[in-house]
Specification:
The chain is an alpha/beta fold. It is built from six helices and five strands.
């Protein structure tokens, strides 16, 4: 039986974190399509385009909080303003090096956020969250 590919979008301005996640994805037991975005505005524009084209959206978003142009909080606020996108069947995980309780508590404002992951993430964490891919 062929496993369906898991489509993940990584939204983070840290090139090293992109490399780490790429290596971890290659080590997963399931096939992964990893898309790279370096700030929230770039990702939001692409997701709006995909939605207009009736194309598949990523199943999982890994979202950094501190980025240029549009940070993670601004991205989530903008996403909340697009019901078709905020209601999309994806799992959004904030990936941040911040362990500030204010940040983790703030995720409650965005019910479509599935979780808060502290960097660096491990292969076990990535395997766990990719279980949501069907």
């Amino acid at each position: 039986m062929i496993q369906q590919e898991c489509n993940i979008a990584l939204i983070d301005d840290d090139v090293l974190f992109h490399r780490i996640v790429t290596v971890l994805c290659r080590r997963l037991k399931k096939p992964v399509q990893l898309s790279h975005y370096y700030h929230g505005l770039e990702a939001l524009d692409e997701f709006q385009h995909l939605h207009r084209q009736n194309a598949a959206l990523p199943q999982i978003l890994l979202l950094d909080l501190n980025m240029p142009y549009m940070d993670g909080w601004q991205f989530l606020k903008a996403l909340k303003g697009f019901p078709a996108l905020s209601g999309a069947p994806w799992n959004i995980y904030i990936c941040s090096s911040s362990m500030d309780k204010t940040d983790t508590d703030r995720t409650v404002e965005y019910p479509f956020v599935s979780g808060y992951l502290t960097k660096p993430i491990s292969i076990a964490v990535l395997e766990s969250i990719t279980e949501h891919c069907s």
